[in-house]
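Appendix B, example 12.
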Amino acid sequence: MNAIRPVAVKLDPKTHDRIRQLAEARDRSTHWMLREAVVQFVEREEKREAFRQAGLKAWNEYQETGLHVSHSEADEWLAKLEAGEEADLPECHN
């Protein structure tokens, strides 16, 4: 069973008041607002980190293989898709 553990967060009075006002406006507790903010932050940052890791992986693969699609090839492919045409993904090459 996963226990819920409390965490203390020190906020400046202005930020604390802003959270309290939002909580009142939404008929929620400040605790709920803070928990929701943390959950959303963690989810966003996990996605950002996954995107960053994918970019690093792609860069490393390019460094190893040299396989790529040129800007003009990608631009041409995207233009076809934007125009509603079906277009095969350009092939990677050295």
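The radius of gyration is 23 Å. DSSP finds three helices and no strands in the chain.
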